[in-house]
Amino acid sequence: MGGAAIVKLRPSPLVCRQAVELMSDYLDGALSGRDTRRLEKHLAVCESCRTYLEQLRLTISLSGSAGPDDLEPAALAELVDVFRKFRGGPDASSENDHA
Ligand SMILES: [Zn+2]
């Protein structure tokens, strides 16, 4: 086995929408090696995704987090609060200080 491994019928294994979904994890360093390669392959051929990634990177460096951009800081803080209550315990915050 392992002769003609690469099938050329699929020029774009990753559509833009999937690429965008991978980006925040990619910038977070949370993406698996395989997905990273898939994303980088797509970025190599897709200029609009490269532009989007740069904007995302900039947004993250300014805000310090990779949250959804339609989520306002206040809403995010509220969500974190809800999470703490949900998990219960006064020391619940100590186990993920780096969120
Ligand atoms: Zn794209």
Question: How would you describe what is shown here?
Answer:
- The chain is mainly alpha-helical and 99 residues long.
- It has a single domain (16-88), classed as Arc Repressor Mutant, subunit A (Orthogonal Bundle).
- The protein is 59% helix and 0% strand.
- The chain is built from 4 helices and no strands.
- Helix 2 (33-45) crosses helix 3.
- The longest helix is centred in the middle third of the chain and has 17 residues, at 47-63.
- It is globular.
- Zinc ion (ZN) is lined by residues 16, 19, 42, 46, 48-49.
Offer a few descriptive terms.
binds zinc ion; 4 helices; Arc Repressor Mutant, subunit A; single chain; 59% helix; 99 residues; mainly alpha
List bound small molecules: zinc ion
| Dominant shape | globular
Give average pLDDT, whole number: 73
CATH class: Mainly Alpha
- Number of helices, where a helix is a run of at least 4 consecutive DSSP H or I residues: 4
What name does CATH use for the topology?
Answer: Arc Repressor Mutant, subunit A
What's the β-strand tally?
0
Over all CA atoms, what is the radius of gyration?
Answer: 18 Å
* H/E element order: HHHH
> What is the architecture at the second tier of CATH?
Orthogonal Bundle
Strand content: under 5%
**Strand pairing plus helix content: what structural class?**
mainly alpha
Main beta sheet strand tally, sense and closure? none
Distance between the amino and carboxyl termini? 45 Å
Tally of discrete structural domains: 1
Q: What ranges have pLDDT less than 50 throughout 5 or more consecutive residues?
A: none
Proportion of helical residues: 55-70%
